[in-house]
């Protein structure tokens, strides 16, 4: 499938692109978190059906979707991430299209009109948009009837982060996610959400909320990845425990990420 380059201002994630796979995707914690997400994605895949991925990063999920026989359109706002994703998905150029574009302005991104059978947004891409309900509406408009959404959205109330920041000598940053209006990060504003605000945004857009689970309530925050990598047995134990109770409060209120599953009626 053809790729079209769209002019987009430089993004803060450009500086993370080259090291992203090493520091997250290929780390023990990153692989554990992604495996938890894919436990929910895998049953939804039907070879030949279409997927729109919002915030594809370096293309790890896009490649896996293509390997499962899906037709993929993947979008990211980072030019460098897009370049890496296109290179990674090169063997599937007929069925994977990677586009540079703003997730809040999908109407201007080639190939994203749909309709799609599945829309995926992994690891906080939707936290980078100012109006979650508006983007949810855009997502709904791009789904087939009965189409599914799997989104991983960074949570707002994260005790793990409070403890980690205080323990590492950064108490002033411990409660940053609670700031109204989001947090400035490298010139970009990040918005954190509770399970209630996510449900409200989805319902306002006309999407059905099928499931919300906690991802990183018992597992440590991603910033603690190097530490937990030295404690593999603990990582495995925490993952097993979290997967058993991931959809029950209070994990759905206190997680680093929320694993959200939606459906268009």
| Sheet with the most strands, sense and barrel status | 7 strands, mixed
- Helix fraction bin: 25-40%
First and last CA, distance: 29 Å
CATH superfamily, by name, is Vaccinia Virus protein VP39
Structural classification: alpha/beta
Residues in β-strands, percent = 15-25%
The tally of beta strands, per DSSP, is 9
Shape: globular
**Count of the separate structural domains:** 1
Number of helices: 9
CATH C-level category: Alpha Beta
Query: Mean pLDDT score, rounded?
Result: 94
What do we call the CATH topology?
Answer: Rossmann fold
Strand order of the largest sheet: 3-2-1-4-5-9-8
H and E string: HHEHEHEEHEHEEHEHHE
The CATH architecture classification is 3-Layer(aba) Sandwich
Spans of at least 5 consecutive residues with low confidence: 4-9
Gyration radius, in Å: 17 Å
What does this structure look like?
With 265 residues, the protein is an alpha/beta fold. It has a single domain, classed as Rossmann fold. The protein has nine helices and nine strands. Helix 5 packs across helix 7.
Summarize the SSE layout with pairings:
Blueprint: H1 17-25, H2 28-41, E1 50-54, H3 60-67, E2 71-76, H4 79-88, E3 96-100, E4 116-121, H5 132-141, E5 143-154, H6 159-167, E6 183-185, E7 188-190, H7 195-204, E8 208-215, H8 225-229, H9 232-245, E9 257-263
Parallel strand pairs: 1-2, 1-4, 2-3, 4-5
Antiparallel strand pairs: 5-9, 6-7, 8-9
């Amino acid at each position: 499938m053809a790729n079209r380059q769209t002019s987009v201002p430089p993004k803060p994630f450009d500086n993370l692109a080259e090291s992203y796979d090493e520091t997250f995707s290929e780390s023990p914690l990153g692989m554990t978190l992604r495996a938890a997400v894919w436990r929910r994605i895998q049953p939804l895949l039907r070879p030949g059906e279409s997927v729109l991925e919002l915030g594809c990063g370096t293309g790890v999920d896009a490649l896996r979707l293509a390997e499962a026989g899906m037709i993929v359109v993947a979008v990211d706002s980072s030019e460098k991430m897009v370049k890496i994703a296109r290179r990674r998905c090169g063997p599937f150029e007929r069925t994977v299209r990677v586009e540079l574009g703003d997730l809040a302005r999908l109407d201007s991104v080639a190939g994203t009109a749909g309709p799609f059978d599945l829309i995926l947004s992994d690891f906080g891409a939707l936290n980078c948009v100012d109006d979650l309900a508006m983007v949810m509406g855009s997502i709904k408009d791009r789904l087939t009837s009965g189409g599914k959404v799997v989104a991983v959205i960074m949570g707002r109330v994260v005790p793990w982060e409070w403890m980690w920041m205080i323990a590492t000598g950064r108490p002033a940053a411990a409660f940053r996610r609670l700031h109204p209006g989001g947090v400035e990060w490298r010139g970009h504003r990040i918005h954190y959400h509770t399970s209630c605000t996510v449900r409200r945004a989805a319902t306002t857009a006309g999407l059905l909320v099928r499931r919300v689970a906690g991802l990183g309530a018992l597992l440590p925050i991603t910033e603690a990845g190097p530490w937990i990598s030295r404690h593999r047995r603990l990582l495995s134990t925490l993952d097993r425990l979290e997967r058993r109770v991931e959809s029950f409060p209070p994990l759905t209120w206190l997680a680093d990420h929320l694993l959200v599953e939606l459906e268009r009626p």
